[in-house]
Design goal:
- The chain is an all-beta fold.
- It is built from no helices and 42 strands.
- The strands form eleven sheets. The protein has a four-stranded antiparallel sheet with strand order 1-2-3-4, with no helix packed on it.
- The radius of gyration is 26 Å and the shape is elongated.
């Protein structure tokens, strides 16, 4: 599936499945499939008061009516449900201010825009194939757009320098249509998705101006120039399944994601846009990947292969197949490598560590491939993941073993190894440590083979929240901008996470300060308020 980026972590709440969410009055408004409306206080990490009721079906869409100049406190939340009802809410009231049935069948989405004559207008997208225009009180229908063959799944508004306000709608018929809402006429049509189009949104690019992004049943996200009706770009996903991931930065393309997939090749993707970049031929199937920064603008990539070798390549020259210093890479001693990690030694020396199937850990100079050390971890395999954790001037390491049910960690590659998540079991496909790019907060991320991604405190003892991806997962890696990339059976999923969201009051800003002698060593038993 194509890569995607979520702007905020998904919270696991005590409500039914969620399909609609939007910021409102300093909180997150959340509508669930039981027709309930929740207000979530992000700063405090909890639901604000009781849920609100009034819908006749699952909440499918939300939008916020902007305040007017004559009524600066007039901002309203608009919600729409699967039975065709639209409700308008004030921030300080638990009952809906206005309520009407906009469609005889369900409403799939709703948006608000400002008309130069009518002021604020609501546009509702219906299962009946129409888009209807309303005043915000529901007292009168201002217009109706028809033409889609089948349900309209999404609607958004943007401003065109020539046509003024334009509505873009996405339909079951596989088309995205552009409308003049005042004249109730179709301006254009975008085609290219195979199957239904489920989402559409508009944003402004500093170079290209207005761009439309659409998501379809065909598993693609497409970017369009609505002025000429052509595709502006197609994010590309690697072949699947994904076996290993590593992040790196190069002077030309910036952040990139290296992906080893089921066809025995390595693909390089833009970490933000998912576009495919040039990548070297690794010379055979790859069983593990790792990266480390060698110097400013230079990153080194290590690949492990079934022939018991590890090869090192400078990513600044991805087309060049010559490994760094060692022609065939350092051998691992006869046992296949299960996991790789880029680490920093006590003298800030960059190195690569490899854990073999016989539980032996070896590490090499990342620049020359010279063997620097060897340690028998005595950990029970098989192993599924090894994570490097920056810790002062050295690196702590976490290893997932015993069939993926247990995690052990050590400060430095030589050990000793201590249990992480004491007293807990559960299969894990991978672990990662996410650090906020602007603050020093960090969180531990684990993902199970079944697609359950969990965020933990740094002690690994207190779960903060859970994201259920609904995909078969193989690996997870942290990205430098505070996100994570998850390798799945179908491709790569990229999520943005903000560890500072879960920072506790009084927690030191620097996790490596001298007051914290051991990473993951403290016990945490305070309630989180988020489950």
């Amino acid at each position: 599936m194509p890569t995607g980026r979520l702007a905020r972590p998904a919270y696991s709440l005590q409500c039914d499945a969620v399909r609609a969410v939007t910021p409102f009055a300093g909180k997150l408004a959340i509508g669930d499939l039981q027709g309930r409306l929740w207000m979530f206080d992000v700063a405090r990490g909890r639901i604000d008061g009781r849920h609100r009721t009034g819908h006749h079906g699952p909440v499918h869409g939300m939008t916020v009516c902007p305040p007017t100049t004559s009524e600066p406190e007039s901002e309203r939340l608009v919600t729409a449900d699967g039975r065709g009802w639209v409700l308008v809410w004030r921030a300080d009231r638990s009952r809906a201010e206005h309520k009407w049935r906009a469609h005889d069948t369900g409403v799939q989405a709703v948006t608000a825009y400002t008309d130069p004559v009518d002021g604020v207008v609501l546009a509702t997208a219906g299962q009946d194939g129409t888009v209807r225009l309303w005043d915000p009180r529901g007292e009168r229908e201002l217009g109706r757009l028809t033409g889609h063959e089948g349900a309209v799944h999404a609607v958004t508004a943007y401003t065109d320098p020539v046509d003024g306000v334009v509505l873009a709608t996405a339909g079951q018929d596989g088309t995205v249509r552009l409308w003049d809402p005042r004249g109730e006429r179709e301006l254009g049509r975008l085609t290219g998705h195979e199957g239904a189009v489920h989402a559409v949104t508009a944003y402004t690019d500093p170079v290209d101006g207005v761009v439309l992004a659409t998501a379809g049943q065909d598993g693609t996200v497409r970017l369009w120039d609505p002025r000429v009706g052509t595709a502006a770009g197609h994010p590309v996903a690697p072949p699947s399944p994904v076996h290993a991931l590593a992040e790196a930065v190069d002077p030309v393309d910036g952040g990139t994601l290296w992906v080893a997939h089921g066809e025995g090749r390595v693909t390089r993707l833009g970490a933000v846009d998912g576009m495919r970049r040039t990548a070297p031929d690794p010379g055979g199937p790859v069983t593990a990947l790792a990266s480390t920064a060698a110097s400013a603008g230079s990153w080194l990539l290590a690949t492990a292969h079934p022939d018991c070798t590890v090869r090192i390549t400078d990513t600044a020259a991805p087309a060049r197949r010559t490994p760094v210093a060692v022609p065939d890479g350092p051998t691992t001693g006869g046992a296949p490598v299960r996991t790789l990690a880029g680490i920093r030694l006590a003298d800030e020396q960059p190195a690569f560590a490899a854990l073999t199937e016989d539980a032996v850990l070896r590490w090499w100079d990342a620049r020359t491939g010279t063997l620097l050390g060897r340690a028998d971890t005595a950990l029970p395999g098989p192993f599924t993941a090894m994570t490097a954790i920056p810790y002062g001037s050295t690196t702590a390491m976490a290893v997932t073993g015993e069939g993926g049910h247990r995690v052990w960690w050590a400060v430095g590659p030589q050990g000793p190894w201590n249990p992480l998540f004491p007293g807990r079991t559960g299969r894990l496909a991978g672990t990662a440590v996410v650090r906020d790019p602007t603050t020093a907060h960090q969180a531990l991320v684990t993902v199970s083979p079944e697609g359950e991604l969990r965020i933990w405190d740094r002690a690994g003892t207190r779960p903060l929240h859970t994201v259920r991806l609904g995909l078969r997962c193989h690996v997870v890696v942290a990205l430098g901008d505070g996100g994570v990339a998850v390798g799945t059976q179908d491709g790569v999923v990229v999520l943005d996470l903000d560890p500072s969201t879960w920072a506790e009051e009084g927690e030191p800003a620097d996790p490596y300060s001298e007051t914290r002698q051991v990473v993951f060593g403290e016990q945490a038993d305070k309630p989180t308020g988020v489950t």
